[in-house]
Every structure is written in C-alpha cells, then in structure tokens.
Amino acid sequence: MPSRWELHWASVEPGQSVGTEQHNVEEEPRPWLIVSDDLVQRAKLVVACPLTKQLEKDPAMDPFRMVIDPSMVAVAPGDTGMNVAGLLLGEQIRAMSVKRIRVAKGSTRIGKLKPAARAEVEARLCAVLGLDLK
Fold first, then answer.
1. What are the domain boundaries of the chain?
2. Cα 88 to Cα 65: distance, rounded to the nearest angstrom
3. What is the pLDDT along the chain (134 residues), one digit of tens a residue?
4. How far is the first Cα of the chain from the last one, in angstroms, to the nearest whole number?
5. CA dist., res. 107 & res. 118, Å (int)
6. CA–CA separation, 39 vs 53, rounded Å?
7. What is the pLDDT of residue 29?
8. Is 3:46 a contact under the CB 8 Å cutoff?
9. How would you label 97-118 residue by residue, b for 16+ Cβ within 10 Å and e otherwise?
10. Topology of domain 6-129, per CATH?
11. How far apart are CA 113 and CA 131, in angstroms?
C-alpha cells in the first residue's frame, strides 16, 4: 500500500477527468505524490497531488506549485526512480482510490520525498486550502 510522502505512478484516464483536471498523457500514468496520512487508506483512498513535466511558470499558480527534483527523492531497491524534475501541482490535490495506483514500468513506487522537501509541500498545500497553521 502507498504511504505518505511516496511518489507513485497512478492512472487517471482522460475520460475520467473534466476541464483542467489532470489525467494521463498519451495513455501513460503520471507521477502522484501521496500527501494524506496513512490512516486515510482504511477507506481505500489516498489524497495525492500530480506532477507534470511541464515546468513553465504561472504566476497565479506559483504559490501552490513547486519543482520536485530527482535529488529530493530517496530511491530504494525496487523503486523506478525519477529521471527528470517534475512540477508538483498543489492546486490539483484530489482523493483517489488506491486502485488508481497501478503497476507501471515494473513498480508503482517511484521513491519517497526526502524530509527536507516535505515542509515546502505542506506550505503549498496550506496555501491551496487557505489554512494558516502558524
């Protein structure tokens, strides 16, 4: 089962998204960062944010987004690893069934976000949700 701070390949087919919601590109699953507490999985769900290879800046969305560089991801044996940087789309946070996390490229797990990067992700999600946790 996926755990908080892990990056996994997950599948959201284009027909399962509406408008600007993120989905697979060219039939390929995309990386998603699991941000929910592991207890959420009791409901067979995770809350996750997608990553994209498109690194263009969008000033309106910058408070919600951050670049995840491969050096920020710890890779264990069996993980697929991360070859290129991805842009975390915090404004695209969503709950999804754990069934969307499927085997791709031999493993669903890409790696685990290192502790040094987690606080910035949390800050971006607080901005998305309008939370002030000071």
1. 6-129
2. 5
3. 889 999 998 877 656 655 556 656 666 778 899 999 999 988 989 999 999 888 988 899 999 999 999 999 999 998 889 999 999 999 989 998 888 786 444 568 999 999 999 999 999 999 999 998 76
4. 32
5. 23
6. 30
7. 79
8. no
9. ebebbeebeeebbbbbbeeebb
10. SH3 type barrels. (2.30.30)
11. 22
Q: In whole angstroms, give the CA distance from residue 82 to residue 129.
A: 28
Give residue 93's identity as a one-letter amino acid code. Answer: I
Which of 51, 91, 101 has its CA nearest to residue 72? Answer: 51
- Helices (H) and strands (E) in the chain — how many of each? 1, 8
Block residue for tokens 């994209």: 52
Mark residue 51 as left, alpha or beta (left: phi above 0; alpha: psi -120 to 50; beta: remaining).
Answer: beta
pLDDT of the residue at 28: 72
How far apart CA 72 and CA 91 sit, in angstroms, is: 20
pLDDT at position 50: 92
